Amino acid sequence: MINTTNDPSTPPTQRSIGELVQSIRDELLGVVHHEIDIAKKEITGIAIKAGIIAACAAVLLFLLLSAWVMLLFAAATGLQALGLPYWASFLIVAGVFVLISAIAGLVAFLVFKKIKAPETTIETAQSAVDAVQGKRRSNAVSYDDTFEELYGKQVSSRTE
Questions:
Q1: Are 155 and 31 in contact (CB under 8 A)?
Q2: pLDDT tens-digit readout, 4-21
Q3: Does 93 map to a domain?
Q4: CB-based contacts of 30: which residues, under 8 Å, 6+ apart?
Q5: pLDDT digit string, tens, across residues 139-157
Q6: β-sheet bridge partners, residue 2
Q7: Rounded distance, CA 115 to CA 47, Å?
Q8: Which domain, by its residues, includes 34?
Q9: Three-state SS for 136?
Q10: Is the four-CA dihedral 37, 39, 42, 44 of positive or negative sign?
Q11: In whole angstroms, how large is the CA radius of gyration of the chain?
Q12: Residue 99, in any domain of the structure
Protein backbone atom coordinates (compact mmCIF):
# COMPACT_ATOMS: atom_id res chain seq x y z
CA MET A 1 0.00 0.00 0.00
CA ILE A 2 1.26 3.43 -0.90
CA ASN A 3 0.37 6.78 0.62
CA THR A 4 -0.26 9.04 -2.39
CA THR A 5 -0.12 12.29 -0.42
CA ASN A 6 2.46 13.88 1.83
CA ASP A 7 -0.01 13.87 4.73
CA PRO A 8 0.77 10.95 7.09
CA SER A 9 -2.83 10.95 8.41
CA THR A 10 -4.22 10.15 4.94
CA PRO A 11 -4.94 6.45 4.49
CA PRO A 12 -2.76 4.68 1.92
CA THR A 13 -4.18 3.83 -1.50
CA GLN A 14 -3.18 1.36 -4.18
CA ARG A 15 -1.41 2.69 -7.27
CA SER A 16 0.23 0.72 -10.00
CA ILE A 17 3.91 1.01 -10.92
CA GLY A 18 2.86 2.74 -14.15
CA GLU A 19 0.90 5.35 -12.19
CA LEU A 20 3.87 5.92 -9.88
CA VAL A 21 6.26 6.31 -12.82
CA GLN A 22 3.82 8.71 -14.51
CA SER A 23 3.54 10.70 -11.27
CA ILE A 24 7.32 10.92 -10.95
CA ARG A 25 7.58 11.94 -14.60
CA ASP A 26 4.96 14.67 -14.15
CA GLU A 27 6.70 15.99 -11.02
CA LEU A 28 10.08 16.00 -12.74
CA LEU A 29 8.67 17.81 -15.78
CA GLY A 30 7.10 20.38 -13.48
CA VAL A 31 10.44 21.00 -11.76
CA VAL A 32 12.27 21.26 -15.10
CA HIS A 33 9.71 23.70 -16.51
CA HIS A 34 9.92 25.78 -13.35
CA GLU A 35 13.74 25.86 -13.58
CA ILE A 36 13.48 26.98 -17.21
CA ASP A 37 11.09 29.79 -16.23
CA ILE A 38 13.45 31.02 -13.53
CA ALA A 39 16.42 30.87 -15.91
CA LYS A 40 14.51 32.82 -18.58
CA LYS A 41 13.74 35.62 -16.13
CA GLU A 42 17.35 35.89 -14.95
CA ILE A 43 18.89 35.59 -18.42
CA THR A 44 16.56 38.30 -19.76
CA GLY A 45 17.93 40.77 -17.22
CA ILE A 46 21.49 39.85 -18.12
CA ALA A 47 20.74 40.19 -21.84
CA ILE A 48 19.34 43.70 -21.35
CA LYS A 49 22.50 44.75 -19.52
CA ALA A 50 24.65 43.15 -22.22
CA GLY A 51 22.71 45.14 -24.83
CA ILE A 52 23.40 48.37 -22.97
CA ILE A 53 27.09 47.48 -22.78
CA ALA A 54 27.18 46.68 -26.50
CA ALA A 55 25.47 49.96 -27.40
CA CYS A 56 27.84 51.97 -25.20
CA ALA A 57 30.83 50.12 -26.66
CA ALA A 58 29.61 50.90 -30.19
CA VAL A 59 29.24 54.59 -29.29
CA LEU A 60 32.66 54.54 -27.66
CA LEU A 61 34.34 52.97 -30.70
CA PHE A 62 32.59 55.28 -33.17
CA LEU A 63 33.48 58.40 -31.22
CA LEU A 64 37.07 57.32 -30.66
CA LEU A 65 37.45 56.64 -34.38
CA SER A 66 35.93 60.04 -35.12
CA ALA A 67 38.28 61.68 -32.61
CA TRP A 68 41.23 59.96 -34.26
CA VAL A 69 40.19 61.34 -37.65
CA MET A 70 39.79 64.78 -36.13
CA LEU A 71 43.21 64.58 -34.50
CA LEU A 72 44.73 63.64 -37.85
CA PHE A 73 43.06 66.58 -39.54
CA ALA A 74 44.18 68.86 -36.71
CA ALA A 75 47.78 67.73 -36.96
CA ALA A 76 47.85 68.10 -40.74
CA THR A 77 46.22 71.51 -40.66
CA GLY A 78 48.41 72.63 -37.76
CA LEU A 79 51.57 71.67 -39.58
CA GLN A 80 50.38 73.38 -42.73
CA ALA A 81 49.03 76.58 -41.30
CA LEU A 82 50.75 76.88 -37.92
CA GLY A 83 47.82 79.05 -36.96
CA LEU A 84 44.99 78.85 -34.47
CA PRO A 85 41.86 79.02 -36.61
CA TYR A 86 41.78 75.54 -38.19
CA TRP A 87 43.65 73.16 -35.94
CA ALA A 88 42.37 74.73 -32.72
CA SER A 89 38.81 74.16 -33.86
CA PHE A 90 39.63 70.58 -34.91
CA LEU A 91 41.22 69.90 -31.50
CA ILE A 92 38.19 71.26 -29.69
CA VAL A 93 35.87 68.97 -31.70
CA ALA A 94 38.17 66.00 -31.12
CA GLY A 95 38.25 66.80 -27.39
CA VAL A 96 34.45 66.76 -27.28
CA PHE A 97 34.43 63.34 -29.01
CA VAL A 98 36.95 61.97 -26.51
CA LEU A 99 34.90 63.33 -23.60
CA ILE A 100 31.67 61.76 -24.88
CA SER A 101 33.41 58.43 -25.53
CA ALA A 102 34.87 58.51 -22.00
CA ILE A 103 31.37 58.99 -20.58
CA ALA A 104 30.02 56.09 -22.69
CA GLY A 105 32.92 53.90 -21.55
CA LEU A 106 32.25 54.77 -17.91
CA VAL A 107 28.55 53.91 -18.28
CA ALA A 108 29.43 50.58 -19.92
CA PHE A 109 31.93 49.80 -17.15
CA LEU A 110 29.44 50.60 -14.38
CA VAL A 111 26.73 48.45 -15.98
CA PHE A 112 29.23 45.62 -16.52
CA LYS A 113 30.22 45.66 -12.84
CA LYS A 114 26.58 45.05 -11.83
CA ILE A 115 26.12 41.85 -13.88
CA LYS A 116 25.87 38.78 -11.69
CA ALA A 117 25.57 35.09 -12.43
CA PRO A 118 22.01 33.69 -12.37
CA GLU A 119 22.37 32.71 -8.71
CA THR A 120 18.82 31.54 -8.05
CA THR A 121 18.79 29.28 -11.11
CA ILE A 122 22.10 27.74 -10.09
CA GLU A 123 20.97 27.27 -6.49
CA THR A 124 17.60 25.75 -7.32
CA ALA A 125 19.12 23.50 -9.99
CA GLN A 126 21.69 22.27 -7.47
CA SER A 127 18.88 21.68 -4.96
CA ALA A 128 17.00 19.64 -7.55
CA VAL A 129 20.11 17.57 -8.29
CA ASP A 130 20.70 17.04 -4.58
CA ALA A 131 17.04 16.02 -4.10
CA VAL A 132 17.31 13.47 -6.92
CA GLN A 133 20.50 12.11 -5.35
CA GLY A 134 18.78 11.92 -1.95
CA LYS A 135 20.87 14.63 -0.27
CA ARG A 136 19.41 17.20 2.08
CA ARG A 137 20.68 20.77 2.20
CA SER A 138 20.51 22.82 5.36
CA ASN A 139 19.33 25.88 3.42
CA ALA A 140 16.84 24.16 1.15
CA VAL A 141 15.14 26.39 -1.38
CA SER A 142 11.40 26.32 -1.95
CA TYR A 143 10.88 26.82 -5.66
CA ASP A 144 7.57 28.65 -5.28
CA ASP A 145 8.88 30.93 -2.52
CA THR A 146 12.10 31.73 -4.40
CA PHE A 147 10.28 32.59 -7.63
CA GLU A 148 7.70 34.70 -5.78
CA GLU A 149 10.43 36.46 -3.81
CA LEU A 150 12.40 37.24 -6.96
CA TYR A 151 9.67 38.20 -9.36
CA GLY A 152 6.63 39.06 -7.25
CA LYS A 153 4.46 36.42 -8.91
CA GLN A 154 3.08 33.34 -7.29
CA VAL A 155 3.68 30.39 -9.58
CA SER A 156 3.15 26.78 -8.75
CA SER A 157 5.65 24.26 -10.06
CA ARG A 158 2.81 21.78 -10.44
CA THR A 159 0.58 21.76 -13.51
CA GLU A 160 -3.12 21.47 -12.82
A1: no
A2: 556 666 666 677 888 888
A3: yes
A4: 157, 158, 159
A5: 555 555 555 565 665 555 5
A6: 13
A7: 10
A8: 25-119
A9: coil
A10: negative
A11: 30
A12: yes
Give pLDDT tens digits for 34-79.
889 888 888 888 899 999 999 999 999 999 999 888 887 776 776 6
Tens digits of residue pLDDT in 120-139? 888 888 888 887 777 655 55
Q: CB count, 10 Å around CB of 134?
A: 6
What is the domain count for the chain?
Answer: 1
Q: For residue 137, tell me if it sits in a domain.
A: no
**Smallest Cα–Cα separation from 31: which of 106, 111, 141, 119?**
141
pLDDT for residue 84 is more than 70? no
Indicate whether 37 belongs to any domain. yes
Contact 10, 3 (CB under 8 A): yes
